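S1.2 Input.
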Amino acid sequence: MTNLGRIGLVALILTLAPWSAFATSENSVEIQTYDVPAGAHPHDVAPAPDGSVWYTAQHQEALGRLDPKTGATKHIHLGAGSRPHGVIVGPDGHAWVTDGGLNAIVRVNAQSEKVGVFPLPADTGYANLNTAAFDANGILWFTGQSGVYGRVDPASGEVTVSQAERGRGPYGISATRDGRVFYASLAGSHIAEIDTATGATTLIEPPTARQGARRVWPDSRGRIWVSEWNSGQLSVFDPAAKTWRSWKLPGDRPQTYAVYVDETDAVWVSDFGANAVLRFDPVSERFEAFESPRRGARVRQLLGREGEVWAPESGADKLVVYRYGSR
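S1.3 Output.
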């Protein structure tokens, strides 16, 4: 029995076919698994308004597109040397990609699938681009682990890069409903808010030292949930009260990678240590765990739309969707 099984919080995932489903009666979650091309190494995923799902095929210089109705996939080549990391859907309905190999932000038109490239300024150096988010004014903000963050104005195409206050580490980034932008610094073990008017940052220190803040996601109240890679914790920061709370994930050696908050304010995280995706209820303060039947699944990011959370299993070349009802 696994560590999570001993705690008694595990819901077993059964995979019946490349895009088959199995509903778990314990928690009203239906889990469906899709194959992507072998060797794609899907890193991040983004459900689109038209029902399709974008994913970064990091090892194949491509942005992938899945049709969940048929299980069919299509790869759009982004250019020689491309190594796409993050993908989100912008307010324009198109896919926006942080591409570490091209050292550029890439836009893929959702209708024509035409690829547009927004290179970082030549004097930036290698940024190790990570993740992106749009603010309330339609400006895209992005992070680079080499120690930068920046912005792209889609209207003018202008790209601006700033040096992070503490150097290496900017990783996950997201925006609240009112457009405030926060990022996490993995190497710096802190989070920061970007002033979208000036580009300046305010650093926010979590209470656990060297926790390895990896990704961030806001809830409906504007609180910022943080996945802590080194500490194995899930934490939340309340900007209004300036307070923190933290919970250790179940199991002996949790490694909290991704975090996403759904429309019910349930908090989803991926745990490399348990090879699982977990759902956390902030009211009962209880975790539910969904272990992958595939060893080394390595879910690196989570994103969703109403009623669904999508997870790319980068180590197994799968996309998995968790469809849930009322809690």
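S1.4 Remarks. Helices lie at 3-7.
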